[in-house]
Amino acid sequence: MFNVGYRTLKTAIGAGIAVGVAQLLGLNFYISAGIIAILCIKPTKKASLFSALQRFVACVLAMVFSVIFFHLLGYHPWTIMLVLLLFIPSIVKLRAQDAVGTSSVIILQLYSQGQTTWAIIWDQVGVIVIGIGVALLLNWYMPSLENQITRYRKKVEENFAIILKEFATYLRDGDSDWTGKEILETADILKEAKSLSLKDIENHPFQKKDSYHSYFIMRGEQFEILERLMPMIASLDRTYKQGRHISDFLDRLSQRVSPKNTADQFLEDLEAMRVEFRESPLPQDRQEFEIRSSLAHFVNEMEKYLELKSKF
């Protein structure tokens, strides 16, 4: 058994409908309608619209070049070479290079007729419009990605909570049986979630709908900070009083990981912690100095972490 993907299904149906409609209308080059439909069905609405526009412009330009050169120079193989030598750079200049193949077929079809009449031109226009139109109609419906994106969001938040909780546990107890699998898992989820949320944006080309993508970008930047904090957490002395304060702070923070903005209260707590560190007695030895330096660096990193959420 094999699975037929959603896009594969639309491609097969689109090609059949386009060819059928073109045949029904008595167009000579009805096969081209199916080819154009296949090439215009893309993974997202935005990509499909862009592809359709590219191919329409390229095909119309191909007809203009063909009519002019075949009329002036005749229907000869070397005329085809000249047309393509001038036509392809023009298409590349218009950034429609993906449509070179389709539009070149139009040129060859016009050459095969040995003449250029309005009937032949309208036949080609009909094929182009049918192929593009069928593809756009079929591609206008896209399955919702909302549920899958929401699952990714929840999983990222769950993993963030676990990571912060494990940081707190290590600082408090000095030992942990945590494998760190959430780190690797979160990296993979964020990569997939960013791609999926970008696809969701392209499926709504006329709407300002980028909150999910912005959210995962923000979480990705926060995740980079958490990765930087790992070796720092490992170097902190759990017997140091400020280390216990950080442990309590991370415990509370792990319980408030959510899409809602709860960062402001934690930024205030962090500032209070910074003031406390500043007012503490000066370090007595090198080890204590290094611990205090790590604590100050931790506070700065956590401030960046929370500000990312506060600005979201």
Automatic annotation (TrEMBL):
Subcellular location, record wording: Cell membrane
An example Gene Ontology CC term for this record: plasma membrane
Topology versus the membrane: Multi-pass membrane protein
Chief place of localization: membrane
Domain of life, per lineage: Bacteria
TM region(s), chain numbering: 12-41, 53-72, 117-142
Domain Putative aromatic acid exporter C-terminal: 146-310
Pfam families the record matches: ArAE_1 (PF06081), ArAE_1_C (PF11728)
Keyword Iron-sulfur: no
Keywords: Cell membrane, Membrane, Transmembrane, Transmembrane helix
Name under which the protein is recorded: Uncharacterized membrane protein YgaE (UPF0421/DUF939 family)
Source organism: Scopulibacillus darangshiensis
Organism classification: Bacteria, Bacillati, Bacillota, Bacilli, Bacillales
